Amino acid sequence: MGTEQMDLTGKLLLAMPGMADPRFAHAVVYMTSHSDKGAMGLMVNKPAPELRLSDVLDHILEGAGLTDATLGVHMGGPVETGRGFVLHSSDYVSDIGTLKIAPEFSLTSTLDILEDIAAGRGPRKALLTLGYAGWGPGQLEAEIGHNGWLTCDAQADLVYGKDDAGKWGAALNSIGIDPLGLSSAAGRA
Questions:
Q1: Which Gene3D superfamilies does the entry link to (predicted)?
Q2: Which helix (H) or strand (E) segment is 112 a member of?
């Protein structure tokens, strides 16, 4: 195979049933960046139990009287779990720093987006994560080569949708794979 670099920026990674790391079991990861220097992504289907945006804002902004802050919080990955990232629709751009990834996907990791969401000035669609998934140079390619991940195009309705438990199956269906058939075949040689 040639030395052509695979670029999965803006794609979804779908954990295969035999994923060795339990933190990524049935994970759907939106890839925010991927290059020869490594890769970064956010799990979009692992809610943080009993944690809402209002809880995060109360902690960060010391209860600034915020009202409509019911957006759920997701565990984005095992790296820097105290750091927040907001994956959102591209109708919102922060003055401080928003990275546009694809037409329906941008990333902002500054406090102003949380304040804007709470005040009703935020993006049309958003998903808040704590932490991220990261891979060193060549690590993700090796995991894909060992059948740890499948890839597919990211669809905004799936990524931002409320059905976290159904995202993995829906993403597999989008590439013509029946999750039940895949699951039942897992672990057999």
A1: VC0467-like
A2: helix 111-118
Contact 47, 71 (CB under 8 A): no
pLDDT at 65: 44
The yes-or-no verdict on residue 27 having pLDDT over 90 is yes
Lowest mean pLDDT of 41-55, 58-72, 128-142, 148-162, name the range: 58-72
Q: CATH assignment of 11-185? A: 3.40.1740.10
Whole-angstrom distance, CA of residue 48 vs CA of residue 99: 24
- At residue 139's C-alpha, the angle toward residues 182 and 126, to 5°, is 70
Q: What is the pLDDT of residue 180?
A: 81
d(CA 12, CA 116): 27
Long-range contacts of 155-160, Cβ-Cβ distance < 8 Å, separation of 24 or more = 156/89, 156/104, 156/105, 156/125, 158/12, 158/28, 159/12, 159/28, 159/30, 159/44, 159/87, 159/105, 159/127, 160/89, 160/125, 160/126, 160/127
Residue with tokens 């195009």: 153
Where exactly are the structural domains of the chain? 11-185
Specify the pTM. 0.86
